[in-house]
Amino acid sequence: MFKKRLSKSPLFARKKKLYGGVNLPGFKSLSNTTRIETLPISPQLVMPLKQHIGEPAKPVVEVGERVLKGQVIAETSGYISAPVHASSSGIVAAIEARPIPHAATIKEPCIVIHTDGKDEWHPAIQPVPKPLKLPAAEIRQRISDAGVVGLGGAVFPSAVKLKPTREIETLIINGVECEPYITCDDVLMRYEADAIIQGALLLARIIKPHEIVVAIEDNKPEAYQSLVNAVERFEQAGVTAVSIINVTQVPTIFPAGGEKQLIKVITGKEVPSGSLPYEVGIVCLNVGTTAAIHDAIYYGRPLVSRIMTVTGDAVGSPGNYRVLLGTPIDFVLSQAGVTAHDDVAVIMGGPMMGVAVADQSVPVVKAANCLLIKSDRQIRQPVASMPCIRCGQCASACPMKLVPQQLYWHARSKSFDKLVTYHIDDCIECGCCQVVCPAKLPLVHYFRFAKSELKAREQERKKADISRLRSETRLLRLEKIKQEQEERKARRKANRKRAASRGDGVVSSATAKPEVSATQQQSPDLESVESPAASESDDQPRTMVR
Amino acid sequence: MPLQQSDTVVSAPFIESRQTISVVMRQVIYALIPGIAVAVYFFGWGVLTNLVIASASALLWESVALYLRKRPIITYLSDTSALLTAVLLGLALPPMAPWWLLVTGTFFAIVVAKQLYGGLGYNTLNPAMAGYAVLLISFPREMSSWITPVTLPAMDMGFVETLVFVFFSELPNSVSLDSLTSATPLDYMRTEIGRGASFNDINSSSVVGAFSGRGAEWINLAILLGGLWLCYKKLISWHIPVTVLTSLGVLAGIFHIYSPDQYAGPLFHLFSGATMLCAFFIATDPVSAATTPLGKVIYGLGIGILIYIIRTWGGYPDAVAFAVLLMNFTAPLLDQYAIPRNYGFKSKGYKSKGVWRKGSIQDE
Predict the structure, then answer these.
(1) CB B101 within 8 A of CB B139
(2) CB crowding A363-384: b at 16 or more within 10 Å, else e
(3) Hey, which bits of A129-275 come out as E strands?
(4) SS3 string of A58-95?
């Protein structure tokens, strides 16, 4: 009891501070000095059916069909899913497996559109006259229909987040772009602050939070100022709803922009392992997502483009570009002034958590916040890693407070049970441990391997469970049939006996009857079939059934 | 596990720090420089001969072991961990130790305690202290001939004389071994108190300097300086040094208050012998120490307590080596149980999955 009281006292309350983390060089000024440019329409667009977490979308168009910009070409399937819309007008050229941005360069089903250059919007897409007057359920439905997913990189369908079952205290708008090089949220906040604020107000209509916190890292003073000014403008214009908005700066440290980490920094709360933030009364959305929600409601426009940072030492004109989803990366590269395509390494995402792109024909997807293009030499993985010296730097850098060093040993020895008890599921693969490791061990690689292996095992286990269940029910069924046959036999026998000894009188028939009822009692009880006692009492050999 | 070794990028993260094992080890050696300098000032050239011979033979043993184990010699020699072991052992041994003592010591440290266990990162015991313990048990006479601390200019033994003694055990005619060596402050205190002398008598004797063992006090201060620099550079965490020094100091304080005549005070314990070297450089060896914060605290407390017990009631005054080695054995267990509370969980430690999920903080 004393302990409980202690933990309740403010002295022992969890600090509003990140666990671990690393300070990284930003390289942000490479790309955040210019305005957002719009990239021209690529002659071909490749739209993967799965650009989000959850079930892939189902195609609703056919090859040869003309589609218009913003038209649904694949619809949601399942609760956690998102539709895909045509990013520009054109003809559906193919629905087939194409390479997608993935660490293992896999192919997944995509809808390929040959654009006609007209960029003709679908007639149904019209601005909403009074968006803030829409009922909450309708706003949510429109967000879902617009295919809006988390644009910070996690691509979780936003509408799912907005159906919380609990009262929401805090809505966090995440403007903490903590990965080096990436500046798409930074420029968005600088130049489209109004859209973010209006988007936040729309969200507030759905989830009715007590407070909205717009969090920005303190290395983006321009973005911070821009948002503060935007809130002031709304206040002066008489929008009273902005009074709950609190624009705040957070210290620059990687990975403060991770959802769980930012929640800790802003509220001091921790999201319980295996649950979503709304269970502690928090909803957290990226600024890019908020702006996309604004576009989806105010203009009725589904998510067909996103802002992407194109940066790195191999880029002629680094900066932020508004790119249509589905644009092949090589098209983006040539537009951004990357001359020698073959000599560069391309990373989709940031240097800490991005995915190396081996095939440059892969399309820009909803998750693609950055293209980092580096001259090849810089990016190769170091070959020589030394043995772990157990220095514990990884553990002090881990924002989830795991012990990566122990996880490493267990991943290496493939002791999967241990990995589960050491909570490998809670690893967010931020890469902090690997960055600080003096032995240069590819820790995250090991963890990814272990996680995928665990997942595969889980599926194996489920499959095995199903087939075991199936064979058990089959056994039971056969058992039942056998017992019924026996019963019938016994009854026939009894009948025969009765028929034979009809002349003997009442006494013998009375003794025959309990015999029948005894076998009847035994047969239908399914539970007794499994117990060895029951099988032993059976006169018949059971091997046939087995 | 097969790691993808293609010529393109493997996987994120794609950036790395410049911190390597080699850099860490080298910085630890640099942090010892002030301590070495002061030791040379009090004990003469014998300190340097110790360090040089130990380093050379350690590197030799390491190369031989790596060659026999068919490991890349240059890669592992350049991690400088063998050099650090040699420096620590060289500092811990009596200055002007005969060459064969150092070669034997480094053999046990490098080949037996480290390479036979699997090399860098796999040894359970601190190599330097394992080598030291073997020498202490096997060659007690050589291990207890500590040079009387005088200042360098006033020393009888010049550089050449030191070399001659180290390699041929020959002293100049004017000097005898007895005149050169004397009991260390810790040893002196132990025998004198054993004889019934009071701590006050010892305090006024010549083995005690300004506030602790003569000579040793200044060496310990210089090492403390280097250690604080290591902490500042975040090469070691505060846990082990602070807990070693606190538990030793507190224990010494308690007994000193209880009976000032019988037990030396905290200052004496903290600044004599290898206390500071242990707290900042030996106990903090990451490979053989506990790794989690709580584990480090327990580990450090244990070392401090053991140092006091062994110094006060043990058979050898050289408590540090045994304290560290004993606690080395507990490190794997501490790593297993002294686990931090993970993000999103309510309590510490690991339990089976089912029990654990129930304990997640959501329940509150």
Answers:
(1) yes
(2) bbbbbbbbbbbbeeeebebeee
(3) 170-175, 211-217, 245-250
(4) EECCCCCCEECECCEEEECCCCCECCEECCCCEEEEEE
Q: How is A349-386 classified by DSSP, letter by letter? A: S-TTT-EEES-TTPBP-TT--EEEEEEHHHHSPPS--P
ipTM: 0.85
Cis peptide before A255 (omega within 30 of 0): yes
Average pLDDT over residues A128-153: 89
* Residue among A297, A499, A428, A541 nearest A20 (CA): A428
Give the dihedral sign, CA A157/A158/A162/A168: positive
Among A272, A349, A448, the residue with its CB nearest the CB of B344 is A272
In whole angstroms, give the CA distance from residue A281 to residue A170.
7
CB-CB contact of B342 with B357 (8 Å): no
Under the banding of pLDDT at 50, 70 and 90, the label for residue B5 is very low
pTM: 0.82
Domain ranges (residues) in chain B: 19-181
Closest by CA position to B101, among listed B70, B147, B134: B134
> Model confidence over A230-251: pLDDT tens digits?
999 999 998 888 899 999 999 9
**Which residues in B293-320 are b (16+ Cβ under 10 Å) and which e?**
bbbbbbbbbbbbbbbbebbbebebbbbb
pLDDT at B362: 39
The structural domains of chain A, ordered by start, are: 17-324 (3.40.50.11540), 394-546 (no CATH)
- Using alpha carbons only, what angle is made at residue B293 by residues B288 and B294, rounded to the nearest 5 degrees? 95
Q: Is the dihedral of CA A260, A265, A266, A267 positive or negative?
A: positive
CB proximity list for A195: less than 8 A, separation 6 or greater: A290, A291, A294, A295
Task: Name chain B contacts of A399, Cβ cutoff 8 Å.
Answer: 343
**pLDDT of residue A103 exceeding 70:** yes
Cβ–Cβ under 8 Å, residues B12 and A354: yes
Which 8-state DSSP code applies to residue B210?
A: S
Which backbone phi and psi does B249 adopt, to 5 degrees? -65, -45
The predicted pLDDT at position A377 comes to: 56
Quick check: B287 and A390 CB within 8 A? yes
Question: B115-140: per-residue pLDDT in tens?
Answer: 999 999 999 999 999 999 999 999 99
Residues B291, A409: Cα–Cα separation, whole Å? 14
Instruction: Write the DSSP symbol of residue A31.
Output: T
What whole-number distance in Å separates Cα of residue A453 and Cα of residue A459? 10
pLDDT at A512 over 70: no
* Record: contact B362-A382, CB cut-off 8 A: no
First-to-last alpha carbon distance for chain A, in angstroms, is: 57
Torsion angle (degrees, nearest 10) of CA B52, B58, B60, B64: 180
**What's the pLDDT tens digit per position in A420-432?**
888 899 999 999 9
User: What pLDDT, in 10s, does the model give residues A331-373?
Assistant: 998 888 887 677 788 889 988 998 888 888 899 999 999 999 8
Q: How confident is the model at residue A10 (pLDDT cuts 50, 70, 90)?
A: low
- Which residues of chain A lie closer than 8 angstroms to B120, CB-CB? 386-387, 389
d(CA B269, CA B248): 7
Mutate to test the interface with B, among A273, A371, A385, A403 (most CBs of B within 10 A): A273
Looking at the DSSP assignment, which residues form a beta bridge with residue B29?
none
CB contact A276 to B (< 8 Å): no
Quickly count: other Cβ atoms within 10 Å of residue A362's Cβ.
25
Report DSSP state, residue B181: B
pLDDT digits (tens, 9 = 90+) for B71-94: 999 989 988 999 999 999 999 999
Confidence of residue A378 (pLDDT cuts 50, 70, 90): low
CB contact (8 A) between residue A395 and residue B7: no
